Every structure is written in structure tokens, then in C-alpha cells.
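A further point concerns the way the authors explain their paired sequence and structure data. An entry of this sort, consisting of the sequence and the corresponding C-alpha cells, reads as follows:
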Amino acid sequence: MYVPLKHTLSSLALETLAQAPRHRPIAWLLAYARLAPDGGAVPEAEVRKIAATLGPAGPRALRRLEVLGILQRDGRAKNSIIRLAPEFLPHRDYFNRQVRRLASTLTALDRQRPGGTRATALRRGVALFNAGLFFECHEFLENIWRATVGPDRDFYHGIIQVAAAFYHFEKGNQHGARTLLGKAVAKLQRYRPRHLGVDVAPLLTDLAPWRQRFSAEAPGQPLAAGEAPIIRVRATI
């Protein structure tokens, strides 16, 4: 059930990017993950209490998580409990990791100043990548890439391929990671030193050792927070 969980969490993440803070389910997800990292059942009242310290935690957001089939709520009123859907229990570590990464994405975006439509879209994609939501970054920017014509098209494609490379690395697919990163670097070289506000030259420098790591025989693995390179975007784009 990894694939359904991946796509459900990815859709939720992309949906959340466009939501007002009061409608986001992230407080519920974080609170549950902290209280039940094993995916077990905990009283709703305890989850609600912790969630209220993390951000808006209205009932609408919790219901959305139930509708998506991520969390289940059993019982009535004050005695209800919340648990991870049983089919997702084998992938609870992945669930917990992705929840933390989504929280990091939203924190980064909330700290940024509003920009134009193109600037906002690029920053959202970059925030997803920097938080480790590589698959989500790929999905989000792909629509922008397909709609882009002219010299910016290959730039977006290069960023997408960087994200896809790290996604494959975390899945243990060294060949896919190595191939995609090589294609990404070849595209992004043409946009040095900076393009659309992205510091391309430092990014390529930071990617160099990863090309070697992706060429190693040892399989890839999930990355710790801050381990992957960071895409830096200047305020004026």
C-alpha cells in the first residue's frame, strides 16, 4: 500500500499549498505523528490538545484527513480515538517523515514575502524540494514546465529532474538517480550563474558530490533533514 499512501500524501501536500492556514490539516498530522509514531490509536482529545499548540486545528481539516483515508476516527464525541489507517501501518515511518517534511515546507513558505504568480509558483516548488518532498516538487513543477514556452522551459525541466533524481535515490534506484541528475546538470549549466532568481551556480557546485554518491554501488536511502542540497532563491524574481 506504499503507492496509494504516496499519492494520497502527495495530493494532500499540493492541495495544502493553496490553502489558508485555518484550513490546513498539518497541525492534526503533526500532533498525531508525535503522539503515535507507531501508527497506533490515541484519544482524539489528546491529538486535538497538541494540535492546538501547533496551529489551526478545526474539525474541517480532520474530516478531510478521514475522507482521504489517511486517519481513521472511531468512537463517539469525547471518547473517540484516532489511528493511522491499518493498510498504511507498514509504511508508518514514511508517513511520519512526509508529515514532517510538509510542515517544513509550509513554515518556509509562510516566512516568504508575497510575489507575482510566476515567483510564487517557483518558490513553492523550491520549498517542496528543500523540505525533501522531491516527488511533490516534481509533480508541482511539471504542470508549470509543460505550460512554459521559450528559454525558461529547460530550466524548469532541469529542476524537475534534480527533484526526480533525489526521489529515486531515496527509493534505492541508483541508476535512475544517476541518469536523471546527469540530465539535470546538463540543462542547468546553461543557466549559470542565476536564472529566475535561483542561484544556479552554487546549486551545481552542491550537486557535484551527489553525482559521485549516485554512482556508488551502495543503494540510496531516505535522507536526514538538511542532508540534501538546498536550492536558493533570491527575493527579487
